[in-house]
Write a structure and sequence with these properties.
Elements: H1 3-23, E1 29-40, E2 60-64, E3 71-75, E4 80-90, E5 106-107, E6 117-125, E7 132-140, E8 143-144, E9 152-156, E10 159-163, E11 167-173, E12 176-178, E13 183-195, H2 216-240
Antiparallel strand pairs: 1-3, 1-6, 2-4, 4-13, 5-8, 6-7, 7-9, 9-12, 10-11, 11-13
InterPro entries: Ice-binding_C
Pfam family, one: PEP-CTERM
Organism: Azohydromonas lata
């Protein structure tokens, strides 16, 4: 075998060994969401404060699904999991307080204040956390609800959560758009694992922590690469002698 081929073989084995060592850091991560909910700017009312007339409240309701529906399988880096977070519905009443005459339904200026809403997540794994919150930019369009234009929209801001030693995942919700009255849309959420945490070395193996624990196959592959590299070094010395 020529020196060039030996060098190429050593480089290939070293690269494979590096990939095997890195794979120890890319283990799947388990997610468990134990609570979800919507938080409104003014508690149970929406569109303005609770002291105003009911006719000044925007007819939008937010309902979260039961948290026991969100048991999530392990995710590898780059994988995502989507689940129904809840439902949002637009049922705006007419200006006379009745929802029978849809033509009378309109969004007034008084109903376009205090529209803040947040989505809350409570995790058991991979972080045991209080509520993680995602806020939204909410737009209510002034005027009648019988045309085909968008009347109400929710644009969610994504967020990134760090956990462990270098682990990260993102939380996102689908943006919603309503173009008619008496309309309900399922709200979906997505979790994406961006990076897995580095697994610390066990305390009884002499490690100081903060490094991936190589598997036996990884050690064997790395040793084979080092052995080939040593063989190349001895062969060079023999040729030079």
């Amino acid at each position: 075998m020529s020196g060039k081929l030996l060098r190429q073989g050593a480089l290939t084995l070293a690269a494979l060994a590096g990939m095997a060592l890195n794979s120890a850091q890319a283990a799947a991560v388990h997610f468990d969401v134990v609570g979800t909910g919507f938080a409104l700017a003014q508690g149970n009312t929406y569109g303005t404060d609770a002291n105003n007339s009911p006719n000044h409240l925007l007819g939008v309701t937010f309902s979260a699904t039961a948290p026991n529906l969100h048991q999530i399988e392990n995710l590898a880096v780059g994988q995502s999991y989507s689940f129904q977070f809840g439902t949002v519905a637009l049922h705006e009443e007419g200006n006379n307080g009745s929802n029978v005459n849809n033509g009378a339904a309109a969004i007034t200026e008084a109903e376009r204040t205090q529209l803040g809403v947040s989505a809350l997540f409570k995790f058991l794994e991979p972080v045991n956390s209080p509520d993680l919150s995602i806020s939204a930019v909410v737009t209510a369009v002034l005027g009648n609800l019988v045309d085909s234009a968008v009347d109400f929209s929710i644009d969610w801001a994504d967020t990134t959560v760090s956990f462990g030693n270098g682990g990260q995942f993102s939380l996102s919700l689908d943006d919603l758009s309503f173009n008619r009255n008496h309309m309900a849309i399922d709200q979906w959420a997505t979790i994406t694992l961006l990076s897995a945490p580095i697994v610390p070395s066990p305390p009884n193996n002499g490690g100081t922590g903060g490094h991936a624990v190589p598997e036996p196959g990884s050690l064997a592959l790395a040793g084979l690469g080092l052995g080939v590299a040593g063989f190349i070094g001895r062969r060079r010395k023999q040729q030079q002698g």
